[in-house]
Amino acid sequence: MKIVARIAAIELVRTVSLVAAAASAFCMVMLTYYVLALPFSLYFGRILLEDWQVFSMAFGLAVLPAIFVAKVPAVAASNFDVIFATRRPSEREMTLFGGVEALLQERSVATGIRLPRLVWRIQDSGELNAFAYAHNRVVFTKGLLLKYEDTPSGIERLSGVIAHEIGHLRNWDTRFQMLHHYLNLPINFGVGIADRTLNRIPFFGLLFIAMTTVLCIPAKVAEMLINSISRFTEYEADRFAARLIEGNRLSEILDDFSKMEEQQSDTFSAWIQRSHPPAELRHEAVSKHVL
């Protein structure tokens, strides 16, 4: 029952956050339209569009980027490759991934869990990290690969990390992040237009700044809602990984992560902004099978 309630809460928050982000995007497109329409109408006369046509056009432009990447996620994936500064693996790195893929395929056959087609990416960073994005990307930092290397134990641990990231892909966590990113594009564009025009008007600019701030509130609320369930989605990804590679193996990996966290000298502000639950609590959840 606890798991069902958690999944229901995640889906409800996701739905509300998408509606809130779309509302901000719509409002900012409307504001952009009126900012651009004013000088146009002064020079060329009134724009011959009914209100419902303007509203329909604004709504379409607000959600069009998100709908497009939902239908063609490869475009977003390529864009995120640039944003996250990732690259394709070298032949040596692909050899390591080959061992990981073989182990995961073995577990897939044993458990009956279908695996998605993954696209591997490398981030040339010394940090120990891995993450997933778009619809099929799984990224490892160079530091994490060097830590585990091409050994049976290392391959098992990398497989556990990948199983967790596959959980994010399977649960659509990364797709919802992608949709939010592209819903923010019209918002950012509208804010940029306002900053370069209305917000520069003496005195009245303060009013327009307040207006754009208010119009962006739903998007900020959406961001807060997504952050509020980030730890729940981590537990769900752990639950998937525990089914795929067995809970005891995942516990060993989480033990590693717990030791890494203890060695890091984090500040309180960094700790409070973490999106992941502490590795110790994740280890406890897996060990007790209460995920």
Strand content: 5-15%
Q: List the secondary-structure elements in sequence, H or E.
A: HHHEHEEEHHHHHHHHH
Number of E-state strands: 4
Shape annotation: elongated
For the largest sheet, list the strands in their spatial order.
1-2-4-3
Overall mean pLDDT: 83
Estimated radius of gyration: 23 Å
Approximate helicity band = over 70%
Main sheet characteristics = 4 strands, mixed
Poorly predicted spans? 267-273
**Estimated structural class:** mainly alpha
Terminal Cα separation, in Å? 11 Å
- SS summary, helix count: 13
Quick structural gist:
The protein is built from 13 helices and four strands.
Walk me through this protein's architecture.
This protein has 291 residues and is mainly alpha-helical. It has a domain of 109 residues. A 4-stranded mixed β-sheet has the order 1-2-4-3, with helices on both faces. Strand 3 and strand 4 form a beta hairpin. The protein is elongated and about 75 Å long. About 2% of the residues have low confidence.
List the helices and strands and how they pair.
Blueprint: H1 2-44, H2 51-71, H3 73-83, E1 86-87, H4 91-111, E2 119-123, E3 130-133, E4 137-141, H5 142-148, H6 152-170, H7 173-196, H8 204-215, H9 217-228, H10 230-245, H11 247-263, H12 268-272, H13 279-288
Parallel strand pairs: 2-4
Antiparallel strand pairs: 1-2, 3-4
Task: Using brief descriptors, characterize the structure shown.
291 residues, mainly alpha, 13 helices, 4 strands, 75% helix
